[in-house]
Amino acid sequence: MSASTPSTVRRWLVRGTATAVAVVVAAGTVTAAHALGTASTPGRPAGQTVTPVAADAERVCAGDALRLSDDAGNDATKATAVGSATIATATTGDTVERSDLDASASGSSDPRLLTAPAGSTTPQVAGSSYQSVSDGDLVGVGAASCDDPAQSTWLVGGSTETGRTSLITLSNPTDVNATVDLSIYDASGEVSAPGTTGIVVAPNSQKVVPLSGFVSDQASTVVHVESSGGQIVAHMQETVVRTLTPGGFDIVSGGAAPSTSQVIPGVVLSGAEAAQRGDDTADAAPVLRLFVPGTATARVSIGITTADGGGSTVNATAEPGIVTDVALDDFPDGRYSFTVSSTVPVVAGARTTTPTQGGATDLGWFASAEPLGDDVVTAIAPGGGARMSLVNPTQRDADVTVTSGDRVQELTVVSGATATFTAPTATQLRIEGAEGLVGGVTYQDDEGIAGYPIRPSTAVSTPVRVYP
């Protein structure tokens, strides 16, 4: 990576992805169109270029840390926000507007809706959040990406063992009801419990759902969130208390969809052995969590590498329909990238734990990331020890430029390697040349660890030719 050099030129591009428009017509109509054609193109169907109307761009941030009680410690059926997360935003448009979603009877994390108003084209919008909290037994740091509304989200993380609280936040930024179904899996298989289907989330609001309402005393969980009607942004918050000692909190961002190849960038290992000393620390060990949504057993190879080229490979087997935690012992402190290659599609995430000040610990959940495009905007929320990681799983070296105002960072990410570097926080970043790479942001200091994946640009419609 070369040193940062000044630049006096800003270049802004809006990159979109074409969407398909299907026109269904009767066979007789198609025949007539081919027969008639036009005066200039006889025998060819007439066509018209349609330019989609520019629309506002929206993403939803996870919100603040949650406690399952009110401020007085009562009403354990309602989640209450604690403290306030810091948010950084970016857009290819003129501005980013922030607004709140309504709370429901189950409480709210006060999620923020980011909106970039449309101009002549649909802009991009991006953001992330970071929070350090110390309030009673809720101590640690959490970070999350601000995400596109979707109909399907995989949350790889969580636990419902004693002292562990996992809360699913369902945010609906649309103007229609969203009906949500939760498919919950643990080490025994799929959970069958009333209330997991038909969860209605009102328009422009958030509902908080405790995972313990469906499954109890399970150390390893994976949740598939599916919605119809309005689309949903789903996150999960996990809080740990070991006897009377705070064990940290973090936010689980949605991971990549099931695939035979998953990449988890920038996993922080720091003091893992020390974090496992004492009572009730079995879940302080670092693990890679896997789940096979199909019916065939997965044979998995896990490549674990650092930015300096070091690393190793771990082989594992994951049975279908149950959650598998692969122990990651004996790795020195550092930031790692996990590349998962499987014989069948899987979802994956990683959990690590670190000692913090005052004899406590903090946990971090790291989600798998989707490949980036050639031109991406993002913003890193300010937090302790923030670093960006770019992983190159492609067969070619990538020359990447990260621009923030007049600051330009140029680096080459070799095929199969990881680049980890310090990038500016609380400002808009533009990443160019990262087609096919995956990215993540991690935080590490004496208050704890956290991380989230960098999201690719939202697919934007471009003009299409429509035929009768």
UniProtKB/TrEMBL annotation:
Keyword Acetylation on entry: no
Sequence segments annotated as region (Disordered): 96-131
A Pfam short name: DUF5719
Organism placement in taxonomy: Bacteria, Bacillati, Actinomycetota, Actinomycetes, Micrococcales
Keywords associated with the record: Signal
Keyword Signal found: yes
Protein name: Large extracellular alpha-helical protein
InterPro entries recorded: DUF5719 (IPR043777), TAT_signal (IPR006311)
N-terminal signal peptide: 1-35
Sequence ranges of Polar residues compositional bias: 118-131
Organism: Curtobacterium luteum
PROSITE patterns assigned: TAT (PS51318)
